[in-house]
Structures are given as structure tokens and as C-alpha cells.
Amino acid sequence: MSNTYNQVVDKLKQYKSKYYKNLLLKGTIFTLVALLSAFLVINALEYIGNFSSAWRGTLFFSFLTAAMLSLYFWIAIPALRLFNLNKPISIDEAANQIGSYFPEVGDRLLNLLQLGRLNMQDNALLLASIEQK
């Protein structure tokens, strides 16, 4: 394959890594804010309400459930996808995301990837097309 195609694929892999790092950072911030808010609300309710032990247990286990769910959805899933342990986005999906943010790139990036996959024997037209894009 051509050197340009390999550079594009490397750039898309870097984009995927940065995408999941941003999701992980955003998820960490959301989790911390949500858990701190829930903790403060539950403590305020307990202070004002003076609940029985059954209600306190319900509040405690609902807080634990919210903590586990937020850790799973906002931190664990992006972390697993960052290290390719769970199904990450494909290179084509990354190219579509980039194309949606930069309309001038559009389908050119996706077409370049599709042309690069056409495993022809040193087709001069194919290499010239990849170099041009």
C-alpha cells in the first residue's frame, strides 16, 4: 500500500484514541458531579427527614446502585473501548465522524479508506488516486 494511506490510518487511530480519552474525561467529571450531588441530597434528606432504618437502607442502596451504574456507563465502557477490549468504533465510523465535523473533507476520507482496502497489485491508478486525496 502507499505511505499516504498508512499515514491516514494512523491519524484515524490517533483520533479514535483521543475520542475515547475525551469520553473518559467527560464521564469522570459527570460521575464525580452526579455522585457528589446525590450524596449531598441524600444527606440533606436524612438530616431533615429523620427516616427509619428501612428508608435509610433504601437511600443507601439506591446511592450504591447509582454509583455503580455511573461508573460502568461513564467510565468503564469508554476505558474498555480505549484499550480495544470492548467493541470500539471502526475506522470507517471515525472517518464519518470527522467528515461530519469538517464538510470539506466529506466523503473523500471514506473513499480513500475504501480505495486503500481494494488490495490490487500495485495498480498505478489506485496509488495515484490515494496520493491525490
Would you give an account of this structure?
This protein is mostly helical and 133 residues long. The protein has helices at 3-49, 53-82, 91-101, 108-117, 124-132. Helix 3 packs antiparallel against helix 4 (108-117). It starts with a helix and ends with a helix.
Question: What's a quick, concise take on this entry?
Answer:
The protein has 133 residues and is mainly alpha-helical.
Count of DSSP helices? 5
Binned strand content: under 5%
Mean pLDDT equals 88
What's the end-to-end separation, in Å? Answer: 14 Å
How many extended strands? 0
Shape: rod-shaped
Helix content percent band: over 70%
- Radius of gyration, CA atoms, in whole angstroms: 24 Å
Secondary structure class reads mainly alpha
Q: Which spans of ≥5 residues are poorly predicted at pLDDT below 50? A: none
Largest sheet: none
The helix/strand series, from N terminus to C terminus, equals HHHHH
